[in-house]
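S.,

As promised, the zinc ion run. Input:
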Amino acid sequence: MLSISHTLMAQMHVHLESGYPHEACGILIGDVTDGGASTHSPAKVVRDVVMVPNVWDVKSERESLHNRYLISPEDVARADREAGRRGWDIVGFFHSHPDHPSQPSETDREFAWPVVSFVIVSVRQGLAVTTQSWVLRDDRSKFDEEAIVAE
Ligand SMILES: [Zn+2]
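Predicted complex:
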């Protein structure tokens, strides 16, 4: 489960909408708590969102900023320091799918890793329409959808 305030959700959507028609991205920082005995997955609480540039370098005509995103290791390190300074952790990453559903692509699976949340927002005609969160299985075989609680 991923908890996020309406305010932070709105900030995330504005950032992703402003990146349209390109994919935009960012990092979610906050608390990871034990989800309790009834669940095997941890509960995450988003405390802040860190907007980062999409640094995907266009490597071929097929893959462009329209359908690829890449967060630089420097930006991840910066977000990690920012989280640590405030007693938090990186709990997830988010990016937009311009004019595509908020479901993970094969490329998303290749570049993701388990435990953290991968939030995908479908941005159609410049407007965020659906938001879903995904967690990669430990064996990296597929993503499972994770509930988002906006409060
Ligand atoms: Zn994607």
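The helical segments are 6-19, 73-85, 106-111. The chain has one domain: 2-150.

- D.
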